[in-house]
From TrEMBL:
Protein's name according to its UniProt entry: Histidine kinase-, DNA gyrase B-, and HSP90-like ATPase
This protein's GO CC annotations: membrane
Organism superkingdom: Bacteria
Span of domain Histidine kinase/HSP90-like ATPase: 434-526
Xref: PANTHER family: NITRATE/NITRITE SENSOR PROTEIN NARX-RELATED
Organism of derivation: Actinoplanes derwentensis
Organism placement in taxonomy: Bacteria, Bacillati, Actinomycetota, Actinomycetes, Micromonosporales
Molecular function as annotated in GO: phosphorelay sensor kinase activity; protein dimerization activity
Length: 541
């Protein structure tokens, strides 16, 4: 820009003396160029550039008129383009206030330069006023539109690819999960630890941690108390639970938050677990005494639940990611088996059929071998189809765990000629989705083992769910097996690992007079003698 205004000044005036303004301008540039980040030198340097430019405008306009090269003060156009440099620099450095006072300084200096330029008085000439007004307007546009210009000049950030972004986030999640205390992201464990913490700050005969599930219902992650409580799990009911969820504020009440209560004095406190702007769960505290939760107690409880909300949200999100990944992998395996091995086995069966059809008469021994081979291929295809059914089986969030287990047992029982007997006692409250999925897989493995290895005629399937308690039993009247250790068979090892993952236990016992019972138990049972003493469905085939 210095070279440009120097060339324009020489063209307009032909006077070497006027080039001295360009030299002064070059000196004024130095502070803003060398110390461009300095808080004081850089703005002072830009102010000096504005002053020198506007004073030079009056002088060059007068000299151009004397030299009779440019008329009516338009000679100021030779140097005024440089005014854009300090104004644009201030704007690009996000200094709008500096740009405003530089414009004011420019207007004042233009007036002073025009008045002091000599006998020709450029300030009284329309051309000088027009040139100065034009560059002041352009300077204002530069000052106030520079932010948009800066954004346009920036290179666009590359849009991350979905899978690349997912890989980055999962890598971070893995690193964070490994650095957590105890390296755990288990919602149930975190909920139990939260209830232990709350026991030290608030009295309570009963307590629970609930989180959201599909269908607008809540699931019990953990609860404490001498008796199992049927907590209200719908969010559209007239309850403190629904109010706390909707308002994101603690709610106290003089009535129980359970569906059924024996009556008498009771105090309940429902505290929402809020992460950011989203409610992820609730903590319920109840005690059999009136007025047990005044404001100081509520404050103490919220001080504990606040940090726990973030931990629980991380655990629930990790559970969702793990479930999605697991389900996707199961579906992928099912597709590959169906489109690969299963189709090839079908073609092998067709080949055996063709070979049987083309056998010459008298080849009875070969025909018998082919019939045996065909039967074996048919058996393997049946096993593959049942495996595909197992891979695709999922717990319907609107149906429940018991119907999913019943569908699988009924399908496998039909294929093996087993009489299947069901006993269900499932509460309306739900277990977490990841827990239900693991229980379904354990039940599937137990049913499959009974069908394949037990040689049984009858199969008994018992499903009792009273969150956070659950018990699944699969019994058969087959031959049983001697080795009941979980490490004795690969399938039992898998079931034991699944049970441990959901903080449950696997129990394998002989059934009298014959057969085996495989049970997975989660949590502690309600106060009843046995699971089967309070079934809500009649035993049937």
């Amino acid at each position: 820009m210095l070279l440009l205004v120097a060339a324009l000044t020489w063209t307009a005036t032909g006077d070497p003396v006027q080039l001295g303004w360009i030299g002064l301008l070059a000196i004024a540039v130095v502070p803003g160029f060398v110390a461009r980040g300095h808080a004081y030198l850089a703005p002072l340097g830009r102010a000096a550039e504005v002053v020198v430019t506007c004073l030079a405008a009056g002088s060059i306009a007068a000299a151009a008129q004397v030299a009779d090269r440019v008329d009516a003060g338009f000679g100021a156009e030779a140097v005024l383009p440089y005014l854009s440099v300090p104004l644009l620099t201030a704007a690009l450095r996000r200094r709008p206030a500096e740009g405003v006072w530089l414009l004011g300084l420019a207007a004042a200096t233009m007036a002073a330069g025009g008045a002091l330029a000599g006998p020709s008085e450029p300030l009284s000439q329309p051309g000088y006023l027009a040139a100065c007004g034009q560059w002041l307007v352009l300077g204002a546009i530069i000052t106030f539109a520079a932010e948009t210009m800066r954004q346009l000049l920036q290179p666009p950030e590359p849009t991350p690819q979905p899978y690349a972004e997912a890989t980055r986030l999962l890598t971070q999640l893995r690193s964070v999960a490994r650095s957590l205390p105890g390296a755990t992201l288990d919602p149930g464990g975190i909920s139990e630890h939260l209830l232990e913490e709350l026991r030290a700050v608030a009295a309570g005969h009963r307590a629970a941690v609930l989180s959201a599930s599909g269908g607008g219902r809540l699931v019990v992650l953990a609860q404490t108390g001498a008796e199992r409580v049927d907590w209200e799990t719908t969010l559209d009911a007239d309850s403190g639970i629904a109010d706390a969820w909707a308002t994101q504020q603690p709610q106290t009440a003089s009535r129980s938050q359970a569906r059924s209560h024996q009556g008498g004095d009771v105090s309940s406190l429902v505290v929402p677990l809020v992460a950011g702007v989203r409610t992820i769960g609730l903590v319920i505290l109840e005690t059999d005494a009136p007025g047990a939760y005044p404001s100081p107690v509520v404050q103490a409880v919220t001080e504990v639940t606040g940090p726990a909300s973030l931990r629980l949200e991380a655990a629930l999100l990790f559970d969702d990611v793990r479930s999605l990944a697991t389900n996707e992998e199961r579906q992928r395996l099912a597709r590959e088996i169906h489109d690969g091995v299963a189709q090839e086995l079908v073609m092998v069966g067709y080949g055996i059929d063709n070979a049987q059809a083309t056998l010459p008469e008298g080849a009875d021994e070969t025909a018998e071998e082919l019939r045996s081979l065909r039967a074996e291929v048919t058996r393997v295809i049946t096993e593959l189809r049942l495996s595909l059914f197992e891979l695709r089986s999922e717990v319907d969030r609107n149906g429940g765990l018991a119907p999913a287990i019943a569908e699988y047992a009924r399908t496998l029982g039909t294929s093996a000629g087993l009489r299947v007997h069901f006993t269900f006692d499932e509460s309306t409250a739900r277990l977490p989705a990841a827990t239900e999925a693991e229980l379904l897989r354990i039940a599937q493995e137990a049913i499959t083992n009974a069908r394949k290895h037990a040689g049984a005629s009858n199969l008994w399937v018992t499903c009792a769910v009273d969150p956070p308690y659950a018990q699944i039993e699969v019994s058969d009247d087959g031959k049983g097996f001697a080795d009941t250790r979980p490490d004795g068979r690969y399938g039992l090892t898998i079931m034991a690992e699944r049970a441990e993952r959901i903080r449950g236990r696997l129990e394998i016992t002989p059934r009298h007079p014959s057969g085996t019972t495989v049970a997975v138990v989660l949590g502690t049972p309600p106060r009843r003698d046995s699971v089967r003493d309070s079934v809500s469905a009649q035993e049937g085939e």
